[in-house]
Specification:
238 residues, alpha/beta, Rossmann fold, 10 helices, 7 strands
């Protein structure tokens, strides 16, 4: 369950390759519609599990493990993984527990939104626990994981998709965000090594409902390891 629950989505068209999208807390019905549009624009079978468990990261990993097996993702010639921010924490734990082989990983990152778990668990802890349980508190208690360290043993360098805008949560608690220190945009602050990076004109709310607009970049990355004609100009902090 995410903050705005949407049922798991499995879209297949006999493709030999698949994309597993590991969404985050903001994923909901509008995001699900955008995922459906993405599928029509791509040459990939698409799997989007409703995997977040209020009991925490470990149970969320177990759900993903079962989901992979249930949907026979190991039958595809290649499986790529797109992780939103909360999904990165879960993927890291999964990799430590011997996750199945992946052909490539794309990470959605945001110097703003990655501060949100700490902010909401401090400012509105009762609401945060009611809606998201231990899961969001576990995110708040840890820094975003060093996924590069976990991926390099598998020969994978991630692609970085970096959100340029602030979500409504960050705008609402802008003072708290500023107190947490300066915002850094350089791709090396997100991963020691990466295959390619790009900036997208979305915040962590709108990126879900506009996921289909990422289809050309994602397809390009899967085919060549590069995002193609993407924006790589560092945005100004807001």
């Amino acid at each position: 369950m995410s903050l705005f629950p949407a049922k798991s989505l499995e879209l297949k068209n006999g493709n030999s390759r698949a994309l597993l999208v590991v969404p985050g807390i903001g994923y909901g019905p509008s995001g699900r519609k955008s995922m459906q549009r993405f599928f029509r624009l791509s040459s990939l079978d698409l799997f989007v599990p409703d995997y977040i468990q209020k009991s925490g990261i470990n149970d969320s990993v177990r759900y993903l493990q079962d989901y992979w097996s249930k949907n026979h993702l190991d039958h595809y010639s290649r499986v790529y993984v797109f992780c939103f921010i909360a999904g990165g924490y879960v993927l890291d734990r999964w990799l430590q527990l011997d996750a199945p082989q992946m052909s490539g990983v794309l990470l959605d990152r945001s110097p703003y939104q990655e501060r949100a778990p700490s902010i909401v668990t401090n400012r509105i802890p009762r609401i945060a626990r009611m809606l998201l349980g231990d899961f969001v508190f576990q995110l708040a208690a840890a820094r975003y994981p060093d996924l590069w360290a976990a991926l390099k043993t598998r020969g994978i360098r991630p692609g970085l998709v970096i959100e340029e805008k602030r979500s409504w949560v960050i705008k609402l608690f802008s003072r708290d965000c500023r107190k947490m220190g300066p915002i850094f945009w350089e791709p090396t602050t997100f991963a020691d090594q990466y295959e390619d990076f790009c900036y997208v004109p979305f915040d962590h709310d709108s990126i879900y409902s506009n996921f289909h607009r990422l289809a050309p970049m994602i397809q390009s990355f899967i085919e060549s390891g590069h995002f193609g004609q993407a924006n790589r100009k560092i945005p100004p902090s807001q």
